[in-house]
Amino acid sequence: MADCQLVDKYLKDSLSNITAMDKIPSTYDETNRLLWEHEQQVRSVFDAPQLLLLQEEGDTILNQLQQEENYLGHSQDYKEEMLHVKKMYKHLQNSMMNLVKVAETRFHKLEQGLQLRGFENECNKLNIWISTEGRHMLNKYNSCIDNLKSAKMLEDQFLKDYFSAMVSLEKFFLQTVYP
């Protein structure tokens, strides 16, 4: 019984630690680090010896106690204690399931945050490119053309630059939206 209470406290503490931070960090690297830390924290919680013992042997111990109830079950105290142990065990199983759900939810939120920060980084790179190289490309098309041949050459160059920009945009979206 005391072991179950210790495991219950451990699960409650672990749950509060996992849910303590609900804000996505502001940078890709911080988010990536937090995602890694979350994975390590969850792994250490589920690898805890007292939790592993409960998962592996809890049902067996409970079954053995129920079998002994036939011999010792005449006492009201024993029956009440068995009822209490069964409730505690069920509560612990529910707590473990809750912890799994919360950990998975947080993991998915962190993954989404990581993708968001990656997309944000790529958008910033694209903005920088547009304001430097892209602007330079467009500036050469602002001049007046005085003959048809020059206009045709300028149009051809514009189409090449336009195609190059579209290819870059496509690569950008394929890398960031569908990694």
TrEMBL record:
SUPFAM superfamilies: Spectrin repeat. Gene3D superfamilies: 1.20.58.60. PANTHER family: PURATROPHIN-1-LIKE, ISOFORM A, RHO GUANINE NUCLEOTIDE EXCHANGE FACTOR-RELATED. This is Uncharacterized protein. It comes from Acanthosepion pharaonis. The lineage of its organism: Eukaryota, Metazoa, Spiralia, Lophotrochozoa, Mollusca.
